[in-house]
Amino acid sequence: MSVFLLQRLGQALVAIFGVMTLVFFIQRLTGDPTYLLVPETATQADIEAMRRSLGLDQPLVVQYLNYLWDMLRFDFGTSYVQNVPVTQIIASRLPYTLQLAAGALFVAFVIGLPVGLAMAIWRKHRFTNVLMGIVLGAQSMPTFWSGILMIMVFGVWLGWLPPSGSGSFAHLVMPSIALGLLSMATYARIARSSILDEMSKDYVRSARARGVGTGRLVGKHLIRNSLIPVISISALEISQLLAGAVIVETVFAWPGLGQLTVQSVQSRDFVVVQGIVLLGAFVTISVNLLADILYGVVDPRIRKGGKA
Amino acid sequence: MKGTKRAARFALPIALSLGVAMTALTPAIAKDLLTVDLVNEPSSLDPHQQWNPDSYYVYRNIFDNMVTRDDAGEIVPQIATAWQRTSDTETVFTIRDDVTFHDGTPLTPEDVVYTVERITDPDFGSPQLGQFNKIIKAEVTGENQVTLTTDGAYPALLAQLVKLSIVPRHIASTMTSAEFNEAPVGSGPYIFDSWDRGVSVTVTKNEDYWGDIGPFETVVFRGVPDAATRVADLQAGAADLVVTLNTDLAQQVENGGQGKVLTVNTERVAYFAMNSALAPLDQPDLRKAISHAIDREAIVDGLLGGYPQIVDQMLSPAHFGWADGIEGYDYDPEKAQELIAGLETAPDMELGLATSPVFDQRVVQAIQQMLTDVGLNVAIDTTDMATWLKDQQTTPEQAPMLTFSRWSCACQDPDGIMYPLLHSSSNWSRVSDPEIDALLDEARSELDETRRADLYAQINRMALEDADILPLYQAAIIYGAAENLDWQPTSNESLFLNRMSWTE
């Protein structure tokens, strides 16, 4: 297990280095931020001066080496636009992203899993088709539409919830649902197919033959065994959620990392984008590592190195 | 009984969240709080740093400027109460003696001198350097007196000083710009209270302000990137003033019954540039044909809700030097086709029209269609804004063939728009006319206002004849406001809180 962990850690470091290098060079292919920072009336000399002060006048290789050296010292730089350390900017946005991710996961789990379960157990029932349609509908609605719709209904017409912004639990409700609906459908479908898969296995038939009731069968055996794919998906979903929900955060003016990403890419704030991408890579890699470990906890066959 | 219990269990969280929602909404109803939805949070509250509306919407309330413009657009006293030009290059300003910064320290002429030195110091690296670097010296020359010396005669000096925010020397000189940005101290009608990064900036009323304060105890500026959400905030009463709406959303506000639309024509002039350095646009008749082919009325009335005003000069009525009676190209597609048929070299090649998503793509596509209608082959080249800006600021030989753009110098002076766009020494200019160059140079340092205005009118007539650049319209800016907010937006795109009030 520890050899396996060390191997995975080594891979993680290589992956992070690769991401750092890629994001550095890709951004520099997308245009010179200097032009966005000076007023239109700036002379060529003003533009040069600004470029020098940002260090963008140096050869690309020198810029890259400086960047790597800074990263090694955990110096993530200062935003071109806001003139504030990147760590400070990201730290101020991260709590919002965590809140929204937790809210969305809650919505997705609490609705998605039972719905998937119901669809698997009563798979021949007419009601299941209706449920399936609703799930597909939820997944197909683009959030920039469903989000605005919710704002109009609950924020403007009914006045139940604040239409946008942050600062209270009520502010979190609509963005969580808008974001959670997407993952909810994924969870429902994965849970359904995973449980169906398990139900066709021999041990289920034997258990039924022994006279184990549906409730006990589902609660004690099926759910546990169907959780592996759900955990894999969760790893993917969580890393996506933590990287920030770009559209939901923009629509609801939720001040998380997704909104920050869009703003920083638009203003070519290279340093901030690098910071966010690095954080995203770090989160994705760690969550996947965690998922690998969790498999072992849920399924002893993996923990003990046996073949499944 | 069991049913009631269960209902109660559900009702409680709902009631709780409703309660929270209500408390979240009530501040907007209370009259002493004003909530403003910007597009993004400010980039910086150091007024000598970042230069974008979301920043100066906020910091122009925290700081006083050297002079200001009243609602009619006239330059009027603020920190400077009077000014007198003592020579072609020297102007003496009298500084108010009853102004204090928010920390209680009096504002002195030394603060004014320091402010000029700070923003013009190349090492400080202000993005606004180009607007103030004509000022080569600032010194205290008497009690409450500051003399500014410019590099040559500079008639646009006052127009630039409208944007010069005075910072306190005893604070700003002891800290970095980043530190000052964290806790900006000015002398304006509102005091910086807090900046919740990524969320909002809060300012509070300065009870000791020397001028009008306005009725709001507290003002919150929030960043709400999605325009439809800003409108929803307005309609739900969660915001009292929202910026930057397009015409569709303005319609929605007007039909929605909640809130009203406030609009003003800014000093932003939309124009269409034709690159005469490149064939086939080197033929004047083709450029004139294009000028006749573009239906500006259709663009303004059909796409832009009728708000903007069509202009025939590279100025707007909000600028100094706006001349009545200059007639431009009327919409005449038959004439355009005639001109094209008579060309020596037929324009059958593809003409590139450079644009970026920042510009209204409906207008760009409409222009493409109008030019296609008279038989031209126009291709839209879309790039990101940074690349677009870089492609524009180059030699005419390398610049795009056609460009739709909008220009504001934020100074309402013709030198700020016509020099960069018409003088051959400017990177932006597609015009190369020695006579226009000479007149622009002359007007730039002409101190006699009547003569100066005449020069610009003359240049505008010549530019129309050259037809390198077609003035389109004076762009409008659209705000949404609460029904009971009384405010007259101004052409310089500022949100001066102390000029707003609640109606009864």
Automatic annotation (TrEMBL), chain A:
Protein source organism: Pseudooceanicola nanhaiensis
Protein name: Glutathione ABC transporter permease
Its membrane topology: Multi-pass membrane protein
Localisation per UniProt entry: Cell membrane
UniProt keyword annotation of Cell membrane present: yes
Lineage: Bacteria, Pseudomonadati, Pseudomonadota, Alphaproteobacteria, Rhodobacterales
Every ABC transmembrane type-1 domain range: 94-295
Superkingdom, natural source: Bacteria
GO cellular component terms attached to this protein's record: plasma membrane
Keywords on record: Cell membrane, Membrane, Transmembrane, Transmembrane helix, Transport
GO biological process, alphabetically ordered: transmembrane transport
CDD domains, alphabetized: TM_PBP2
Family: Belongs to the binding-protein-dependent transport system permease family.
Parts of the chain that traverse the membrane: 12-30, 100-122, 143-160, 172-191, 226-252, 272-298
Keyword Iron-sulfur: no
TrEMBL record, chain B:
Highest taxon of the lineage: Bacteria
Keyword terms, alphabetized: Signal, Transport
Matches recorded under InterPro entries: Peptide/Ni-bd, SBP_5, SBP_5_dom
Domain spans labelled Solute-binding protein family: 74-427
Protein name: ABC transporter substrate-binding protein
Compartments reported by the entry: Periplasm
SUPFAM superfamilies: Periplasmic binding protein-like II (SSF53850)
Organism of origin: Pseudooceanicola nanhaiensis
Gene Ontology terms for molecular function: peptide transmembrane transporter activity
Single GO biological process annotation from the record: peptide transport
Pfam families: SBP_bac_5
Gene3D superfamilies in the cross-refs: Dipeptide-binding Protein, Domain 1, Dipeptide-binding Protein, Domain 3, Periplasmic binding protein-like II
Family per similarity comment: Belongs to the bacterial solute-binding protein 5 family.
Secretion signal span: 1-30
Chief localisation class: periplasm
GO terms for cellular component: ATP-binding cassette (ABC) transporter complex; outer membrane-bounded periplasmic space
TM annotation in the entry: none
